[in-house]
Write a structure and sequence with these properties.
alpha+beta, 6-stranded mixed sheet, 4 helices, 6 strands, 48% strand
Length: 145
């Protein structure tokens, strides 16, 4: 892999993560699904949570899980300071610092959430497109009302 190919792969991986955030916040579920590999897995387990309740495997199941959690909410997600390593022409991994704000509608069991943490992910290039293969979100701090 040349340096130019490596830099292009890093930029393409950053673009996938940008689409992940935008599609979630705009509730573009088809676009959100497209960022994941078909056999992707995602773990959003909060501190002290049960991973069986906060994880999903397969892109359709990941979309269904996230959609159920935020469909009725207004969300704002930001990804910062990407650390991306391309490990082969078709694989890579990344860490993105993150911040999210969520406002649930009147009558929901929660009103707001403001969180900070990291996404730790692996990526795979399938049919010429980088996609998220594994995702694990960890939180450093959460403020809720």
């Amino acid at each position: 892999m040349t340096e130019a190919e490596r830099f292009l792969a890093i930029e393409e991986i950053k673009q996938v993560k940008a689409r992940y955030f935008r599609c979630m916040d705009t509730k573009d579920w088809a676009g959100f699904e497209a960022v994941f590999a078909p056999d992707a897995s995602a773990d959003y387990t909060p501190p002290g949570g049960n991973s069986a309740e906060w994880s999903a495997s397969g892109r359709a199941n990941i979309v269904a899980f996230v959609r159920r959690m935020v469909e009725q909410a207004i969300t704002v997600h930001h990804g910062h300071m990407p650390e991306v390593e391309v490990t082969s022409p078709t694989t890579g991994h990344a860490v993105f610092a993150m911040e999210d704000l969520i406002w649930w509608p009147e009558g929901a069991r929660r009103r707001t959430l403001h969180g900070w943490g990291h996404y730790r992910e692996t990526y795979e290039k399938i049919d010429g497109k980088w996609q998220i293969k594994t995702l694990r979100m960890t939180r450093l701090r959460v403020e809720q009302t």
